[in-house]
Amino acid sequence: MFPRIKNLGASSFGEDADVFGDTLAEVIENAPQGHDLLFKQQTVNELKNLLACNDAEINHASFALIAISPTEEVEEPPNWGSFPTLRAFWSAVLHVFENDPEVQAGKEIDPSI
């Protein structure tokens, strides 16, 4: 039901999420990088659908989609950060994808320009 989010769970939000940033906020900020416009747009749609669910459904889906627990304070890496709820976490992810320059422009942006 959420193949793009599941893809993020295998990379950015996977067991080695700290490879993608020093803090959870940084990992979220970097999540759109390396994905094409279609992936980003589909991710926005999936996140909106996920956030339309109730909290119990979001919790259930999250454990199937991502390998990290964004609501838990972890010891390693230090100062990683956490979110009060999974809804807050997914809302932050949606915000980053919606505000991605390519999504905002509605077209691929050549990085060499």
List keywords for this structure.
single chain; 113 residues; mainly alpha; CdiI immunity protein domain-containing protein
Coarse shape:
globular
Could you report the average pLDDT, rounded to the nearest whole number? 94
Give the class from helix and strand content and strand pairing.
mainly alpha
Query: Cα-atom Rg, whole angstroms?
Result: 14 Å
Number of strands: 0
Low-confidence runs of at least 5 consecutive residues: none
Q: Gap between N and C termini, in Å?
A: 36 Å
| Count of folded domains | 1
How many individual helices?
Answer: 6
Helix share bin: 40-55%
Approximately what portion of the residues adopt beta-strand conformation?
A: under 5%
Sheet with the most strands, sense and barrel status: none
Protein name: CdiI immunity protein domain-containing protein
